[in-house]
Design a protein that fits this description.
By secondary structure, the protein is α/β, with parallel strands linked by helices. The protein contains six helices and eight strands.
Amino acid sequence: MVAITQAVKDGTIPDSEVVVVISDRSKAPGIEKARALGVEAIAVARKGRDREEHDAEIIEELRSRGVELVCLAGYMRLLSDKFVKAFPNRITNIHPSLLPSFKGLDAQGQAVEYGVKISGCTVHFVDEHLDHGAIILQRAVEVMDDDTGETLSERILEFEHETYVEAVRRIATGDYKILGRRVVLSGLG
C-alpha cells in the first residue's frame, strides 16, 4: 500500500489517486501509514459478521468514493462473489509465489518444503477462487539450498513492491488486454 501510494504521488503510476485505504482492523499498521501519507483510511469491522455483509459495506465505501481499481495487500480473506462481480477485472492482489504454484498461506514455506529452485511473486486479478485470477506480472526469485520460509519470504518481499507498482502502472495506463486467462502487456510500458 505504501509503495503504490508513493508511486501515485511521484507520478510513476500516472493519472491516478489513492482515495481510501480500508482495513478490517482499526489498529492495523496500514491505517496509520495511509493517514501519514495523507490518504483517507477507515476500518470496516468484520468480527461477528458474515462475509456477504462485510463485503457489502466495503463495496459501498469503495463505490461512494468512485474507486475504479481495488488493490489488495495483506487481505487474508476470500472475497465474496458479490464483491468480485462489483469490480470485474478491477481487483488486484499480490501473492508470494509463482502462481499457480503454492496457493494460500505460507507459500514461501511450501516452496522450500517442496524443494523448488525458483519461486517469486505474482500480481494477479482476483476472481472467485483462491489465488486463481489472470496473472498480470511475475518476478522470479532463486531458492537457495539453505533457505527457510522466512529467508525466502524476505528475498521475495524485495521484489513484491516494485512488481505490484509496475502492475498497477500497466493497468492505470491501459497497457494490457485480457484474453481469456491471459493478460497480454503491450510492451509500451
